[in-house]
Design a protein that fits this description.
This protein is mainly α and about 60 residues long. The protein has one domain (about 1-65). Helix content is about 85%, strand content about 0%. The chain is built from 2 helices and no strands. The longest helix has about 50 residues, at about 1-50. The termini are far apart.
Length: about 60
């Protein structure tokens, strides 16, 4: 009887740990993806502005001509 109770407790702790680990992983993964997605969007638009010639800084190569 004691062995069965110990096994149930072990399985319960395992399930609880797996559930908490999954929840924390999902939350941290979502935050990381949001952060990286925002950086990727900023980098994309910065590249588009640079290629189209609409940068905030003057192009010193053109000024040297």
């Amino acid at each position: 009887m004691k062995n069965a109770t110990s096994r149930q407790r072990s399985l319960l702790l395992f399930a609880l740990g797996a559930a908490l680990g999954s929840a924390f992983g999902l939350i941290l993964g979502s935050l990381l993806t949001f952060w990286l997605g925002e950086m990727a969007r900023i980098t994309y638009w910065r590249g588009v502005r640079r290629l189209s010639g609409h940068e905030e800084q003057p192009s010193f190569e053109l000024l040297m001509q």
